[in-house]
């Protein structure tokens, strides 16, 4: 069973679109970093 879930997650990731899953985390991280940097500079 341990292998089943692992494979399932991997399959989901492989099946899921890389470009669609990549853009969301990128912008979110950029905003968080920008906001944090802005707060530190102020």
From TrEMBL:
Give the start-end ranges of region Disordered.
15-42
UniProt name for this protein: Putative transcription or splicing factor-like protein
In which organism is this protein found?
Plasmodium gaboni
